[in-house]
Amino acid sequence: MMRSFNTQLEKALPDIWRHACSLTHDKDAADDLVQDCIERALRKRLLWMPGRPLKPWLTKIMLNLYRDRWRYRPYAGPDPQCAAAGHISAVSASCSFDCDLWSGHWSWLSSATGWGR
């Protein structure tokens, strides 16, 4: 059971990170969101039903975290710096480019926690 969880988690990380980046439009916020999602998934892994795909479960966890995080944040209006034409697309492009860096994050996560080996 645990091997399947770890294997599916490793395969889902790039897609989860891309989805977080599309939600936040900020690479650092996406990193934080994915880290919180993975931490919660590891803590609640006994609630996951073996034999079912993990990625939809992770996506739901991440979406709930995103909603909780931004729900209570006061709306200050559009950011004038982000209003510049290309700023958000540049951030999205950098998020897509940095998705390849998740292999480095994954190896650090594996060595730090001792799982996924």
UniProtKB/TrEMBL annotation:
Pfam families: Sigma70_r2 (PF04542). InterPro entries: RNA_pol_sigma70_r2, RNA_pol_sigma_r2. Residues 11-72 form the RNA polymerase sigma-70 region domain. One of its GO terms (biological process) is DNA-templated transcription initiation. It comes from the Bacteria. GO terms for molecular function: DNA-binding transcription factor activity. This is RNA polymerase sigma factor. It comes from Halocynthiibacter styelae.
